[in-house]
Structure formats: structure tokens, C-alpha cells
Design goal:
Distance between the termini: 87 Å
Strand order of the largest sheet: 1-2-4-3-5-8-6-7
CATH topology: Aminopeptidase
Structural class: alpha/beta
Order of helices and strands: HHHHEEEHEHHEEHEHEH
Helix content: 25-40%
Shape: globular
Largest sheet: 8 strands, mixed
């Protein structure tokens, strides 16, 4: 029989034992039934790599390539759930990052087929992959149509003719794809910009500016789910009679063409001066691509010749965003250099493009 005095004494012994055990540093078990570290200890956390088929799974800082921007801005956190209006309204692009892209690209002239053009393609590929995109390099043979004027392909019946002479070399388009995150997401939205130049200029305005806007829009939407497929097309040979975009569009299947709801081209953006960017179409009239920009006060003009025209030729709604009257891209009339770029205007266009893409990605039916 346990007396009251003995029972209280035993309680006292148990309490002392528990206090001694805790003082010795006994920790709790974590969710893996392993001892948790003591307070103040540094733990290592394993992060999973992105699957090639899931572009939204890339950790914010994993695999970051600094080939283009000299500094790396923080990546947006991966978004789960539907895209909200708050997501669209709060999106803000980084003008300094875009200027760094332009500065990097304009270190060299990048005419079609040149070593410098291929180096630029490799750098752009690494940058887009660092955002989590799947990429493809599409090589094609070309001839120097810019100096063989009798072979200009815009005559009826010759636009898609790529067998009109001995090839002078090979060039390449770069395609980055964001797959839809819903099983029946069949619509495709194209965003394009050419990264080549003429032989006269390093092409800050024409068209490192468009490339910079494309990259920054791609970076900002990469972490969001999407109801549609977004394809970023970086074209070579635009200055050689749209060679790269003609080759790309000609390579599309009929099913792919039917699924493309619009093509948005970016060419000559952010030039200093009073002229704002406009939406250029082949006839100066509104089309289905323009309707994506209905929430923004942008004038519709007749667009100058650029890569959007290759999509127009197969009846895909297309437009080009540029400033008119725009400097001719030869670099002979006015210097086509980074000093003539207004980064605030660059940001205005990039914000609009990224928000238009995000809105389209969150819309169920764009037809």
C-alpha cells in the first residue's frame, strides 16, 4: 500500500528526472522520425529540379544563367490556382534588366548566318531555359536575298519558296514553349521578335529592344498556370526578307495554324522621342490580335514590314508593336544605339505585353 507521503515523494522524483532529461538537449522528432536540430542550428534544404514537362516547377534561383543580364532580379514565386485580376494588375517588369539585355546583345553586329548571331541565339536559349521554358533551335538554310533583288520573295507564289538558289549558309530560329496546364488547352498564342541585325548596326532599337521586351514578358509569366500554349519565337533573318519567320510559319502543320489565336510581334520599341508604341496591322485596321489589347489605349496603324507578316500570309491574326514613324533600322540615318532608348517607354510596352499574355493565359475561351 502506497502512503500519501511516499506518493508525493515519487511525483517529486519524476519531475526532477524530466527536467534533467530536457536540460540534456532531448529534441522532438521531425516528420521523417529523425531528431530535429537544436535551436539555432543551420539546416540544409533539398530542392527538386524542374521537370522538362512542367515549366512551373522551377525553383526561383535554381539553374539561373547570367549570360544576358549582368544582375539577376528575383524571380516571381510559382503561382497556384487561377490567375486573378490582382495578379494582372500587380505585374511589373524590370526596365533595368531589359537595358542589360540590350547592352549585352549590342556588343556585336548579328547579320544572318554569322557567328555572332549564333552566339546570341545560344545566350538567349540559356536565358529562357533558366526561366523554366522548353526550347528548340530550328535551323534553316538561307540565301542572301537582300543582295539578290531579283529573288525577292514577296511576289505572289514566291513567298514560301526556299529553293531559289544555292544556300549561302545556315541560320536558326529559337522557340520557347509554355505548355497549357489544363488537358484541353489547345489554343496557341505566338510572341515574336527578331534578334538579327543588318551589317551596318548592332541593332539596339532594331531589334534588341523587342528581344528584351520578349524576355522580360516571358520571365514574368513563367510561374503562372495557363489555359493556353504560349510560344516565344526569336527569329533570325528578319532583315533578310523575313527569312526566319517565313521558314517557321511554313513549317507549321495545318492543325497548329488553326490553333493559333494570334501572333504578337515586337520590333523597334522604346526609341526616344514623343511617339508612343502602336499596334501595326497589315491593313491598318483592327483584327482579332488587336482585341487582346482592348484594355489599353493603343492606336492601330498600318504596320511596317516585319515578322508578323509571315503569319498574315496564312490568315493568322497578327500585329506588330512598334513606334511610328520609326527610325529605319540601317543605322545610317540615325545611330541605332542604346543611348537612344527610353527605358521608361520600354517598360510601358513590356508591362502591357506581359499583362495581355497573363490575361489570355487565364481566359477559358479566346475564340
Amino acid at each position: 500500500m502506497i502512503t500519501t507521503v511516499n506518493f508525493k515523494f515519487m511525483q517529486f522524483i519524476v519531475i526532477l528526472t524530466l527536467l534533467a532529461f530536457m536540460a540534456a538537449g532531448c529534441g522532438h522528432l521531425n516528420q521523417n522520425n529523425e531528431p530535429a536540430p537544436a535551436t539555432g542550428a543551420v539546416t540544409s534544404v533539398k530542392t527538386s529540379s524542374a521537370s522538362p514537362d512542367n515549366m512551373n516547377s522551377l525553383p526561383a534561383d535554381e539553374g539561373k544563367n547570367e549570360a544576358l543580364p549582368s544582375t539577376v532580379a528575383a524571380e516571381p514565386a510559382n503561382k497556384t490556382g487561377p490567375i486573378s485580376q490582382d495578379d494582372i494588375n500587380s505585374l511589373s517588369t524590370d526596365e533595368n534588366r531589359m537595358m542589360q539585355t540590350i547592352e549585352k546583345l549590342t556588343l556585336a553586329i548579328r547579320p544572318i548566318g554569322s557567328k555572332e548571331e549564333k552566339v546570341a541565339c545560344a545566350d538567349l536559349k540559356s536565358e529562357l531555359e533558366s526561366y523554366g521554358y522548353q526550347t528548340e533551335v530550328q535551323e534553316f538554310p538561307y540565301i542572301m536575298q537582300s543582295v539578290k533583288l531579283k529573288n525577292i520573295p514577296f511576289a505572289e507564289g514566291k513567298f514560301w519558296d526556299f529553293n531559289i538558289g544555292q544556300p549561302d549558309g545556315t541560320s536558326q530560329n529559337l522557340i520557347a514553349v509554355k505548355r497549357p496546364t489544363i488537358p484541353d488547352g489547345k489554343n496557341i498564342l505566338i510572341v515574336s521578335a527578331h534578334y538579327d541585325t543588318t551589317v551596318h548596326t548592332t541593332g539596339a532599337i532594331d531589334n534588341a529592344s523587342g528581344v528584351a521586351v520578349l524576355l522580360e514578358a516571358a520571365r514574368n509569366i513563367a510561374s503562372f498556370p495557363s489555359n493556353i500554349e504560349v510560344r516565344f519565337l526569336l527569329c533570325a533573318g528578319e532583315e533578310n526578307y523575313l527569312y526566319g519567320s517565313r521558314y517557321y510559319v511554313n513549317s507549321l502543320s495545318e492543325d497548329e495554324r488553326r490553333c493559333i489565336i494570334a501572333a504578337i510581334n515586337l520590333d523597334c520599341i522604346g526609341e526616344e522621342g514623343p511617339n508612343p508604341a502602336t499596334l501595326g496591322t497589315s491593313n491598318g485596321k483592327e483584327n482579332a490580335a488587336c482585341k487582346l489589347f482592348a484594355d489599353y489605349d493603343m492606336q492601330i496603324d498600318r504596320g511596317a514590314m516585319s515578322d508578323y507578316y509571315s503569319f498574315v500570309k496564312v490568315d493568322i491574326p497578327a500585329l506588330t508593336i512598334a513606334q511610328y514613324p520609326v527610325m529605319v533600322g540601317t543605322g545610317q540615318e540615325l545611330p541605332d544605339d542604346i543611348a537612344r532608348i527610353d527605358k521608361a517607354k520600354l517598360k510601358t510596352v513590356a508591362d502591357i505585353v506581359a499583362k495581355v499574355l497573363l490575361n489570355a493565359m487565364g481566359t477559358q475561351d479566346l475564340n
